[in-house]
Amino acid sequence: MPPKKRTMLKVVILGDSGVGKSSLMQQYVNNKFSTQYKATIGADFLNKELTLEGRKVNMQIWDTAGQERFQSLGLAFYRGADCCVLVYDVNNSKSFDALTLWRDEFLLLANPRDPENFPFVVIGNKVDVEESKRAVSAKRAQAFCKATGNIPYFETSAKEDTGVDQAFETVARNAMAQV
Ligand code: GTP
Question: What is the value of ipTM here, to two decimals?
């Protein structure tokens, strides 16, 4: 019998510039973190192989520069996505307020079959930063996610590698449900 085909999943990460999109992806896929800020130019993707419910899965994670908005990336970036990860920085309320815009932009450009039920995951990153700098409480973020179609919510530190695997496991499971 020929080996079973690998399931391919496409995941898109969106959020304001500097919230840690590239860092989350690097930590999840390569277990690496750098404090040096290197703005993403255009779009980039990494592959992560994982086994989900006994099936081999190839998750392609697409990262984009937070500065590039509104179609500048081209529709190919968005189309065919199986899950969209919306990232904000818990110490930056502007990046939290932008989540709705990113979600709307994704739905407009990706144009999924069933927009009402398309899987999003929200990540509040940089929870390692001292508590006094925190601008958005977990409670506020959870309330937003609940009101926006019950989106799963995770808090992470790409720097200290906390919560990253858990968040992406939910991303993978929800993406899998789409294929
Ligand atoms: P763009 O490419 O401009 O869209 O940025 P991005 O969202 O990909 O952010 P990036 O991953 O490049 O991280 C921006 C800066 O935040 C870098 O200096 C990172 O080192 C830092 N950073 C990322 N994640 C964390 C984190 O969990 N904690 C802390 N303290 N810093 C982080």
Answer: 0.98
